Structure formats: structure tokens, C-alpha cells
Amino acid sequence: MLVATPLVINGMRVKNRFVRSATGEGMADPDGSPSMRLEACLKALAVGGVGLVVSSHAFVEKRGQARAGQLGVHTQDMEAGIARLARAVHAYGGRFVVQLAHAGCRADPAVTGEPALGPSLPQDPAAPPCQAMAAEDLARLEAAFGTAAALCRDAGADGVQIHAAHGYGLSQFLSPHINQRTGAYGGSLANRARLLLEVLGAIRGRIGRDFPVLAKINSEDFVPGGLTAAESVQVISWLETAGLDGVEISGGVFESGKLTFSRAGRIAIPEGEAWFRDTARAVKAAGVTMPVILVGGIRSLGTAEDLVSSGDADLVAMSRPFIREPGLVARWLSGDHAPAACTNDNLCFAPARTGEGVYCVTERRLADRDQTA
Q1: What is the pLDDT of residues 277-327, one digit of tens each?
Q2: CB 23 within 8 A of CB 323
Q3: In the CATH scheme, what is the code of domain 2-372?
Q4: Distance of alpha carbon 243 from alpha carbon 248, whole angstroms
Q5: CA end-to-end span of the chain, whole Å?
Q6: Is 92 a catalytic residue?
Q7: 72-78: which pairs have CB atoms within 8 A and are 24 or more residues apart?
Q8: Which of 50, 228, 327, 336 is most buried, by the most CB atoms less than 10 A from its CB?
Q9: Catalytic, out of 92, 168, 185, 359
Q10: Whether this model's pTM surpasses 0.90
Q11: What does DSSP assign to residue 28?
């Protein structure tokens, strides 16, 4: 099976083609440092055979924090915690990449103590308040990404991933639905992509060319006037030219309804899997040669293998299935090819948001029922 074979990304050897996509576990301590529960969570994924473990979105500056319980890489004090996470994954043969994020207009002022800042004032009066970033805010954001990347490298992480998907900060700049700026950072696609490309440049300026840098980007936003698939393909091509080492393709924002990145409901196998495959295929057809990671609705080994063997993707990523089964990859590679047990009911999000920490609520309920039967 090709999904069981290794792949090298800018010197980082990943033992198989399975990726744990960044997941908001809600397991960080109040200051943003990783708790022992978070360390155990990532360790379980490595024990379970995941080749590349991507951390939850980690805020690069305090005013870019999305919620309480979020991992942080915003101060030097965070380095020791990131080092612990890296060692936990490395001990079982996995590779560890930290996702670097800024929430933009989705930052929580109750947590940050500052107003949320994004590309422009919200057009929707029902949207949370958000102020437009000034030139000094943009410069501060770019520097924060570079500093955070250097911290992760020094802590022993194997790479970093720029979060530019799902309607968070950099995704907001890419989206004409949200970004109503004029001038250098708004309007044309080149202008809307400018901040993302400058963030990549700031990271490379701090860590050089030999440290793996990935990005996560929407295939499209799935909202009227949002980022389109054709625009996404172009941005990914620009990112490769600018020195990106790999891209993870996802899709949707919180307002996308049934087409969001965490669609609820049973997934038909195989016809309902791999939601963003067409865009991944278009990226390859556009001549992009860096590794493509595909996430979104992958629930069977057969589909994972088909994605890699067809060349549509080089690695496959999952999030919710690993909440239910951190040992899913080991199960599949040992010969048990039953689809992932995840039912996509999204009940796992609630404990992550309340500070309890992410877990499969459905699995726990079944276990409790069996104990009382």
C-alpha cells in the first residue's frame, strides 16, 4: 500500500502518508502552554501510527487567540511545552508540526483583553465587532509568525504550518467576502494573498530555507463572494514559488452551513468521501510539485489509498476520526480495514470549547450505557 510508504518533505521523513490534521483540543493551560492531557493526546496519535501529527492551531500573539484553552506559541515561555510535545511524538516514530495561527476577527476579546483585528470592518451587522488592521498591526502580525516559527524550530518541532483556512485571520484576508480593504491588501487576488505571502517570507527570514514550512488553505469558502477554487489554486502556486514545502487543502468557513469543514452526518463510502479532491487534482494539474495533503471526509482505507495511488494527493489527513480512534492507522495497517468509527455528529466540539478538552462524546456514552446495562 502506498499509504504505508514514507515521504520526505524538505528533509523531514514521514513514515507513512497519514496526517493528523490540526484539531482544537481545548487542552492548553490558561497561559497557552500545553497541559499533560494535551501531551497524552498527541502521544496516543503517535502510538497509534500517525506519521505526521499537526498540533492544534497555536496563536502567535495574544490578540490573535481564538478561545480559552488554545495552545500558544506567543512568548518564549512556550518553548519548553512545545519541546515536550515534540518529544512525545518523536518517541514513537512520528513527526511533529506546529500549526501557527492568528484568529483575526474571530479572536475572543474576553480572552485577549483587546479588540479583535482583521482585514476590514464586518459588513454583516450581526458579525462580532472587529477593527481593521493598520500598517503597524500587519507588521506586528508578520513578525509574530516569524518569531513563533523560530521558537518551534528551537523547541525541536519538525516543521510549522501556516493556518490560512476556515475563516480565521489569514483566511479572512484571502476571502473577498470578508476582506473589503482597498489598497495593497485588498481587492485583487494578488493583494488579498499579499499578507499570507509576506507571512511566509517573515518565517523564512527567521528560520531559513532548510526547515519545513507548510500551509493549510481552503479549496474554496463555500459562501457567496468567497474564495473560489480557481483562486485557491493560484494562491497555492504562488506559495510554492515563494518557498512553501507542502500544502494541506481543506474548505469552508463557519458560515458555510452544510459545506463547512466539519460537516455533520454519516458519510457514504466511498462516494461521499474526500470532499475537496477536485481542487487537489486541479492543484496538481496546475504544475504544483510540492506535496499535497488532503483533508475532509476521508473515512476509509480504500479511499486513502486511492487518493495517493491516483496522484491526487500525496498524504491524507483526518481530524474527527482520530478523536474517536487515535489508533486508527495502526488498525488499518495491521489488516483491519473497517471504516473509521467516527459518526460525524460533532458532539466532540462541545467539551473542547468548554475547557473540558476534546473527546468522543458518543463513544463515552456507549461505554457508560454498556456499564449500566
Answers
A1: 999 999 999 999 999 999 999 999 999 999 999 999 999 999 999 999 999
A2: yes
A3: 3.20.20.70
A4: 15
A5: 41
A6: no
A7: 72/28, 72/31, 72/32, 72/33, 73/32, 73/98, 73/100, 73/148, 73/151, 73/152, 74/32, 74/144, 74/148, 75/32, 76/151, 77/31, 77/33, 78/32, 78/33, 78/151
A8: 50
A9: 168
A10: yes
A11: B
